[in-house]
Amino acid sequence: MIRKISNERSRRWLAVIIGISTSLPFAWACSSSDEEPSGDPAIPNTADSSTSDGGREHRDAESPKGDADAAGHDADASGDANEQDAGDAGDAGDAGDAGNLDPLRIVQIEAGLGASTCARRASGAVLCWGTNGSGELGNGTTTDSATPVVVSGLTDAAEVGVGFGYACARRTTGAVVCWGKNAAGQLGDGTKTNRLTPVSVSGLTDAIQLDVGPGHACAVRAAGDVVCWGSNENAAFLETYGDALTPVVIAGLADVVEVALGEVHNCARKASGTVLCWGSNAYGLLGDGSGNDHYTPVAVKDLGNAAELALGASSSCARQTTGVVVCWGDDGWGQLGLGFNVGTRATPDLVADLTDAVEISAGAVHVCARHATGAVSCWGSNNDRQLGSGSTTEQTNRPLPVTGLTDAVGISAGGRQAIELQQSHTCALRATGAVVCWGNNASGQLGDGTTTNRPTPTTVVGL
């Protein structure tokens, strides 16, 4: 959300949202595993209250992450070409604002870059499901689960992100906690020890936005700068090789409102709508047209009104304030969505047949967009039927509609970043509060109680 939203406008939107929410036919069937355990100790609040206030001030500038109560904001922003607005979902994304909703309502869905998925309730509780070999479900075990289980001790999440074998959550205080695999320091606690329940990221108390990559994570702080931690293989975010076990500041960034991560590259969106990227420039990932790697951020060429970012393993996309989407990088699976295959693009190019996008999300080699109508379209690889169209084609270079989905208020595309290990799925949050997922289900990441792959949306049980 590039444009600062006034408090008055926020109150007006909240009034509208509450009115809509109370009129919808909610049907939450909560299993016993969903009950927030009263015996779990709360994660210590290490954030300083003065910095957390600053975080809330900046949440108007966050990117949408699938908040059901933010759908109206997104649609408003996409239709206004004269106002640089990323979708206003940041206000409603705060679990504190969401407290006026039913606390059990799902307000964010996040399909992981591995074989797990997480969802955030309005109360701030987080539930996860799928593979759990490294403790990425956060419930204190390493047992896989094909239905949602509660992340232990986490009751005030404002945003959640799921990587490959680990996950992180931004708390309402501005602190960040992570859990799961920690072989490269991706949990940010100063160690390389896996954690089965959330631990605090060292020294981070004022985060306003969070993104989680396959092996490293980054956060935008209240001052508008960016910090990252975790795997720095191939100099993914720092010029000097070596993992970062605690957050380090990325030089050359200020006035940032959103950070997005790929496997070996990263991008940041500034309040002005400009985008800067750094890391590997293979396939033209950085969008500057040079083909040269850059370890300090460089501007994406001819992109000045970005409202949201979505990065895949080897491609980058941006939603613009007008509702169109541009992509650049590798097109080997049609993930640029141009309507024809081009090999690579070193600068942004328009996605075909898409003019009303209000949200985008990228998996490893596929991308999805939510339309203002509530419909969802996806393009790119379909090896795991992650496009949701029911088609058996292996890939498509233009958006295809997801079968039977007309009321989405949030989307998330996931999948393993390494193409040779591709295992992709996609999820959507519906206006009713239900969650549906489709694609690969080998580890139960679709949450329907089975391990059966699904070519079209299937409902997650127990939410």
UniProtKB/TrEMBL annotation:
Cellular-component GO terms for this entry: cytoplasm
Keyword Ligase in record: no
Region ranges (Disordered): 30-99, 444-463
Pfam families according to UniProt: RCC1_2, WD40_RLD
InterPro entries: Ran_GTPase-activating, RCC1-like_dom, RCC1/BLIP-II, Reg_chr_condens
Keywords: Guanine-nucleotide releasing factor, Repeat, Signal
Residue ranges constituting the RCC1-like domain according to the UniProt record: 100-417
Low complexity composition bias: residue spans: 450-463
Ranges of compositional bias, category Basic and acidic residues: 54-76
PANTHER family named in the record: REGULATOR OF CHROMOSOME CONDENSATION
Protein name: BNR repeat domain protein
